[in-house]
């Protein structure tokens, strides 16, 4: 009838073990691993795993006008007992960018880091937009890369290979396509349209949080003219 949490050498009885031997047998959770339980341990101390609630809805972004995170949480309904499965994480965070302040005004474009990905993603996105009848005319912005973090070269996943073409001093083209094109401002966030000449603007690569840097806006064009390896997309 004993059931002791954790490892407790004092929690013992004398009787038959599951292997048929007779002598000291233990009633703590560790006995299942050390194989010295009492014969009725499984019935007297059934394994009860942790039970948690469903996830809450995602919160809003922690801060507006910057790349930050949102949170969702769940709580413990039943604690684990007798060596049952431990509780999983009770909080999750996900990347988040909010482009409107709590007062409902639009963030200044120059304060928002541009989120970019490879231009190869653009063909599939254009096809989806055309199929939905939502394709709107976009534009392209040329930037000169000023600073790049070492993290752009340290990731070796197949979906991050495009980051190796980011080089300080190079000119890159970043296309603003639907659906990244905001219907109210008719701009992609982070395109630097409100920046001053030669102002340092921030960008961040999608898929590798360690790959980011600064660039200067050169000009806006209707279509991109950079080589494909130096062509990217606003997200």
TrEMBL record:
SMB domain span: 1-50
One of the Pfam families matching this protein, by short name: SBSPON_C
Keywords in alphabetical order: Disulfide bond, Glycoprotein, Signal
Top-level taxonomic group: Eukaryota
UniProt-listed InterPro entries: SBSPO, SBSPON_C, Somatomedin_B-like_dom_sf, Somatomedin_B_dom, TSP1_rpt, TSP1_rpt_sf, TSP1_spondin_dom
Record-linked SUPFAM superfamilies: Somatomedin B domain (SSF90188), TSP-1 type 1 repeat (SSF82895)
This protein's name: SBSPO protein
Gene of this entry: Sbspon_2
């Amino acid at each position: 009838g004993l059931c002791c949490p954790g490892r407790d050498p004092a929690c013992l009885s004398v009787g038959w073990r599951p292997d048929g031997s007779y002598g000291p047998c233990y009633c703590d959770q560790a006995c299942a691993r050390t194989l010295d339980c009492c014969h009725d341990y499984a019935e007297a101390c059934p394994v009860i795993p942790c039970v948690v609630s469903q996830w809450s809805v995602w919160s809003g972004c922690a801060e507006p006008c910057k790349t930050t995170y949102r949170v969702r949480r769940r709580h413990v309904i039943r604690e684990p007992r007798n060596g049952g499965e431990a509780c999983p994480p009770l909080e999750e965070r996900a990347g988040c960018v909010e482009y409107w302040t709590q007062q409902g005004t639009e963030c200044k474009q120059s304060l928002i880091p541009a989120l970019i990905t490879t231009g190869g993603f653009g063909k599939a996105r254009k096809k989806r937009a055309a199929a939905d009848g939502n394709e709107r005319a976009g534009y392209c912005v040329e930037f000169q890369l000023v600073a790049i973090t070492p993290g752009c070269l340290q990731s070796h996943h197949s979906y991050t290979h495009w980051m190796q073409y980011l080089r300080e001093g190079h000119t890159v083209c970043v296309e603003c396509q639907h659906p990244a094109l905001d219907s109210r401002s008719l701009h992609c966030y982070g395109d630097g349209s409100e920046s001053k000449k030669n102002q340092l603007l921030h960008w961040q690569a999608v898929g590798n949080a360690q790959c980011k840097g600064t660039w200067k806006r050169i000009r806006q064009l209707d279509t991109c003219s950079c080589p494909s390896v130096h062509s990217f997309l606003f997200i």
